[in-house]
Amino acid sequence: MKVLVAYGGDSPEREVSLRSGEAVAGALRGLGWSVEAFDAPSPLAVARRAEETGVDMVFVALHGGWGEDGTLQCLLEAHGIPYTGPRWGACWACMDKDVTRAVLESRGVLVPPGVVVDDGRCPGDLLGDALERWGRIVVKPCRCGSTVGIGIVDNPGDLGGALQEAVRYDRKVVAERFIAGRELTVAVFDGEDGVFALPPVEIRPVGGFYDYNSKYTPGMTEYLCPAPLTHEELKEVSDAAVRAYVAMGCSVYSRVDLRLEEGTCRAYVLEVNTAPGMTATSLVPKAAKAFGWSFEEMLRRICETSLRL
């Protein structure tokens, strides 16, 4: 197999993508495949490089921006170039948390109550009303990942700062009720017999809040995989993840982030990631290892399934 690994890009998640791309390229070479790692300056550059080198497919190891919002995927489809992961429409819908929320709600998938605001047209009391109603809210950019720009607010005096931080990355911002409970993530894959969930990963940040530093600083977060869940909790979380994956039109693989509410055993879907982190210690590879797959085996399955679907 001849593969072009597209990584890097110019989104706020560039550094994460660089690590993903390097890990993926190394693992695919370990399978004996011919691999070129390409630090992608633009979607068109990826398509041109793929055509110039005559690769069998592009492995998308880009996070955020045009590498995850469907732009690259749409262009590759137009050029007839196979690539890994969901099709462009699912990527676009999952990248925008506003769209994701609307789709999931329409399909009966539980999401936290929330409001969407625009930095230029936001009524001054909208976030204040949300905070008063729910007591604690999560403020985050609508079209950004890796917990970039996210903040938890329980004091009215902190609202302005949280909104200002979020709009640094996206003029459209979502504010959701904070769901007290356990943070979990579930990798969902397409298999020959249908869609299935890998063992959930529980995320326990040392500081109590899973922000960018907690996510990427060694020792700042404890990961439990498989997550210590009862049979009922496991079914609730896995079913919610699969339903979200299907509702969003995902294919091949994606990662679904959830909160399991304390005292209710209700799983709230926070977002669906169509281009999750792919270092050997990222969340999806952790789940794959618990399932019995090596990092190389997981990547091989992603590539082969992408060509099949």
Report what the structure shows.
By secondary structure, the chain is an alpha+beta fold. The protein has 3 domains: 82 residues, Rossmann fold, CATH 3.40.50.20; 147 residues, D-amino Acid Aminotransferase, Chain A, domain 1 (2-Layer Sandwich); 64 residues, Dna Ligase, domain 1. Strands 8, 9, 10, 11, 12 and 13 form a 6-stranded antiparallel β-sheet that branches. It has a 4-stranded antiparallel β-sheet with strand order 4-7-5-6, with helices on one face. A hairpin with a 2-residue loop joins β8 and β9. It is globular and about 55 Å long. The two termini are 17 Å apart. The model has no long low-confidence stretch (mean pLDDT 92). It catalyses: 2 D-alanine + ATP = D-alanyl-D-alanine + ADP + phosphate + H(+). Its EC number is 6.3.2.4. Keywords: ATP-binding, Cell shape, Cell wall biogenesis/degradation, Cytoplasm, Ligase, Magnesium, Manganese, Metal-binding, Nucleotide-binding, Peptidoglycan synthesis. Belongs to the D-alanine--D-alanine ligase family. It comes from Thermanaerovibrio velox DSM 12556.
SSE topology sketch:
Layout: E1 2-7, H1 14-30, E2 34-39, H2 43-53, E3 57-60, H3 71-78, H4 88-95, H5 97-106, E4 114-118, H6 126-134, E5 137-141, E6 151-153, H7 159-167, E7 172-177, E8 181-191, E9 194-197, E10 201-205, H8 212-216, E11 221-224, H9 231-247, E12 253-261, E13 267-273, H10 283-291, H11 295-308
Parallel strand pairs: 1-2, 1-3
Antiparallel strand pairs: 4-7, 5-6, 5-7, 8-9, 8-10, 8-12, 10-11, 12-13
Helix pairs in contact: 1-11, 2-3, 3-4
